[in-house]
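> forwarded from #structure-qc
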């Protein structure tokens, strides 16, 4: 079996992309209801809030940390369940505490990376899938009447996959000296930001 080692250029590129993504968005700033429409808006929407960005990157980081098959399974499970949550939002089915759920997703996923928790695959899938419902519902409820829910959903699912991929690329630092510590530091940052998001959701 061929083992692929990350080059320093790959790792640096991942960090640059993360910094660009984070710096371009304001924390907890979702697109206002009525502004989301069509594929392009769906593609942009996951980048509209730091809470979404960090939670989705955390899925990629945790998958990379866990290795195969989680590195592929978790970034697939999240968009699938997120689509289910979006459908609930599009149909007007209420999900209580959406913003709180999103905040907790950042807290707990960050803690998983920080502590290098290695549960059974079914447990990690269930955890990721549960939080994906909150993220999806938040996206789904922001589609205005008369617009294509299918195109919008396709857009934000693709964007979510890109964020997971970014997390996986960054997660490759685990193969480098001090890489594990860097990942744990990233997990700590995400968890702390999750606490900030939770505070904002509750106030």
């Amino acid at each position: 079996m061929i083992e692929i080692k990350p080059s320093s250029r790959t790792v640096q590129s991942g960090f640059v992309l993360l910094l660009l993504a984070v710096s371009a968005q304001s924390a907890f700033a979702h697109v206002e209801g009525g502004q989301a429409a069509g594929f392009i808006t769906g593609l942009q929407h996951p980048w509209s809030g730091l809470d979404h960005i960090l939670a989705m990157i955390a899925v990629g980081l945790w998958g990379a940390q866990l290795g195969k098959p989680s590195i592929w399974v978790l970034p697939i499970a999240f968009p699938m369940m997120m689509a289910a949550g979006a459908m609930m939002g599009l149909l007007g089915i209420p999900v209580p505490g959406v913003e709180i759920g999103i905040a907790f997703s950042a807290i707990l996923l960050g803690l998983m990376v920080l502590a290098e928790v290695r549960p059974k695959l079914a447990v990690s899938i269930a955890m990721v899938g549960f939080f994906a419902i909150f993220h999806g519902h938040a996206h789904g409820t922001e589609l205005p009447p008369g617009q294509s829910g299918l195109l919008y959903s396709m857009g934000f699912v693709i964007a979510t996959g890109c964020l997971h991929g970014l997390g996986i690329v960054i997660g490759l630092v685990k193969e480098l000296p001090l890489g594990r510590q860097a990942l744990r530091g990233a997990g700590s940052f995400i968890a702390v930001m999750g606490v900030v998001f939770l505070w904002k959701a509750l106030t």
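QC bot note: The chain has one domain: 37-202. Residues 1-29, 31-36 have pLDDT under 50 and may be disordered.
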